[in-house]
Design brief:
heterodimer; A: 396 residues; alpha+beta; Phosphorylase Kinase, domain 1; Transferase(Phosphotransferase), domain 1; 2 domains; 8 helices; B: 236 residues; alpha/beta; Rossmann fold; seven-stranded mixed β-sheet
Chain lengths: 396, 236
């Protein structure tokens, strides 16, 4: 028993960062119990007075930060159902714990094989989750597939996405220090990479909610095509390529407006990326999520704002973007092969009637969708990624 | 031109240092081969997991500290390598690991804390963009208090703390002035019994420590090595 919760599975670090986690039960309800690896509260009489003072100060700041996020992100707030939020936060002995409801996830091995409308719903619920954070000027800070739980209610036609793990969140423009900031090396934004590398031209104020938008752009490409945008094998990540002035190669089987949207979201300059609200608006027409069997026209290369071409399909008004993109003839340009990047399947337990978070149900697969085994276009993205979860849970 | 040199120099560079502290006393006999095999496979498995996550480690170094008991035989209580670059020095690494024999140990507690202290004071990488410094402890026994059993032996490490409190201060915490390891880089993974000092004094009270209870005579399970690899891969 920990803090009144009965631990029912072996604690593990699987898919976790600076934590261990287990499932737990209290009063007949199942929970996800997260044990923080730091900070640790000093025991009575342990260490020198100076040591205790420093450690207690650190603990107080840790508690304040978590409680302030919990206050801002309340489960009963409008749209709060799209976020997996903490229901309890406490320490037992030296160790801090956080509790969330247990979320059972749905197996979604190949999101790219979903119908356009289903893809649009999945992405809209993900976008809506992120908007809740961005509306209060909070950066998630570690947005990646492993921090998105995909659900499908019994009998429902649609998958929906729930965002988890806000423990590395920070106020927009006020990130942790360069050595302390969290983030994923694959999904990190260009300015995040430079911040971590000690680039003095990037300071805290430049790490804004646009950091999340870059990751969301990569995830959108993955959900729609099954892979990340392609980039030259010399680079360790999409952000490394973008920082070197090498644009990402968006899959040309995507609709033209979607190509433009993803290009804008992965622009080098954070100020040129659309907002979460704009992303949401661009998905109004599900057809933009279609994965065609033949290459689609590239967005107008002369357009000052490639993202603007998405407006013609959605009517949304994006923030300006002048990101460059690959003209069609780059599709077959030989590039250095990237390192092996195997795909990993998303597995999970059957859903257990999660709360509603997606739009109304309906819809059969729509025309224009590439079936799973359909011939591909002349170029496919060469990078496949792990979609997320090994087990059905709400870990963070 | 090597593939390393072909890499874009602006890529984010990750350095991973791992010190494996391996109990090589007689009671580990049933499991030492498993620990050794797991250690030998470690590099490839880490590489595979990182590749699945589309991630790469720019520099990987491994160091092994095998320990027994200064109270039983000070002459072989500690055997260790320097940090070895993998895969370049894989032969040296394999030769050392394969040479380990589970012998001696005397009474039940062993000199695990001396091994841990040596590990903490290792020459960790300080360059590249981001670092992970991981100590992994494999033992099936409690440990003698530091600076007590065998402390007068010639071979007893000279520059390590002589008390748990001092060792704790070397391990450190956020804003510590005495820590010898980088707070944001370090992790301690214990495969150790639910005895002291592993369970409470370290497993419960030290920052960034993961304790997976081991039982004497039971092996290093497959999932346990996965835990180490996950711990590294998830943090990059």
């Amino acid at each position: 028993m920990i803090g009144g919760y009965r631990v029912v599975t072996d604690p593990t670090n699987a898919d976790g960062g600076k934590c261990m986690w287990a499932f737990a039960e209290k009063d007949g309800t199942e929970y996800f119990l997260k044990r923080f690896l730091e900070p640790k509260r000093p025991r009575e009489g342990s260490g020198s007075a100076a040591s205790r003072r420093i450690r207690l100060e650190t603990c107080q700041e840790f508690e304040d930060r978590h409680r302030s996020i919990m206050k801002l992100l309340r489960p009963d707030a409008s749209g709060g159902g799209n976020l997996v939020l903490a229901t309890d936060f406490f320490h037992a002995g030296s160790t801090y714990y956080k509790v969330t409801e247990r979320i059972d996830t749905t197996t979604l091995d190949r999101p790219e094989s979903l119908a356009p409308k289903q893809k649009a719903v999945l992405l809209k619920t993900l976008g809506a989750s992120l908007r809740l954070l961005h509306d209060i000027d909070v950066v998630h800070g570690d947005l990646k597939p492993a921090n998105v739980l995909v659900q499908k209610r019994d009998g429902a036609a649609f998958h929906s996405a729930k965002l988890i793990d806000f423990d590395d969140s920070y106020p927009s423009g006020k990130p942790p220090g360069r050595d302390d900031i969290a983030g994923d090396s694959l999904y990190g934004a260009p300015e995040w990479r430079r911040y971590v590398q000690g680039d003095e031209t990037v300071d805290g104020p430049e790490l804004t909610t646009a950091v999340d938008i870059f990751a969301l752009g990569l995830m959108t490409h993955h959900y729609l095509t099954g892979a990340l945008p392609a980039y030259d094998g010399r680079f360790g990540s999409p952000a490394d390529a973008v920082n070197a002035g090498e644009p990402l190669e968006v899959d040309d089987r995507l609709s033209t407006p979607m190509q433009a949207l993803i290009m804008a979201m992965t622009a080098a300059g954070p100020e040129r990326r659309p907002t979460g609200a704009e992303f949401f608006a661009r998905l109004k027409d599900p057809e933009v999520c279609t994965l065609h069997t033949v290459p689609q026209p590239r967005p107008d290369p002369d357009a000052a704002d490639p993202a603007a071409s998405a407006d013609s399909a959605t009517g949304a008004k994006p923030r300006g973007s002048r990101v460059t993109f690959n003209p069609p003839d780059r599709a077959t340009r030989p590039t250095t092969p990237p390192p092996p990047r195997a795909g990993d399947d998303d597995t999970g337990t059957p859903p257990k009637a999660p709360e509603a978070s997606g739009p109304p149900e309906s819809s059969a697969p729509e025309s224009g969708e590439a079936p799973p085994d359909a011939p591909t276009g002349p170029r496919r993205s060469r990078v496949r990624i792990n979609l997320g979860h090994r087990t059905g849970d709400g870990r963070s | 031109m090597t593939s390393e040199l072909e890499k874009y120099h602006g890529n984010l560079q990750y350095a991973v240092d791992i010190v494996m502290c391996i109990d090589a006393t007689g009671s580990m006999n049933p499991v030492l081969d498993i620990v050794k095999n797991s250690s030998l496979q470690f590099h490839q498995r880490l590489h595979d997991v990182m590749a699945k996550k589309s991630k790469e480690i720019s520099q990987l170094r491994l160091k092994v500290i095998a320990f027994r008991d200064f109270g039983d035989d000070p002459s072989d209580a500690i055997e260790q390598t320097d940090f070895l670059h993998l895969p370049r020095q894989v032969t040296e690494f394999e030769t050392f690991v394969r040479s380990l024999r589970a012998i001696g140990g005397g009474d039940i507690p062993e000199s695990g804390l001396e091994a841990l202290a040596l590990a903490i004071n290792s020459p960790w990488e300080t360059g590249l963009d981001r670092r992970r410094h991981v100590i992994v402890m494999f033992t099936d026994a409690p440990a003698h208090p530091l600076g007590t059993v065998g402390a007068s032996a010639q071979t007893y490490p000279k520059d390590i703390p002589r008390s748990m409190e001092d060792l704790f201060e070397q391990w450190g915490y956020a804003r510590s002035q005495t820590a010898v390891m980088e707070q944001s880089a370090k992790r301690l993974v214990l495969f150790a019994p639910e005895d002291e000092p592993w369970k409470e004094a370290i497993g419960e009270d030290w920052d960034l420590t993961l304790h997976f209870p081991s039982r004497a005579g039971e092996g290093l399970e497959e999932f346990e090595m996965d835990e180490i690899i996950e711990t590294i891969a998830n943090s990059l």
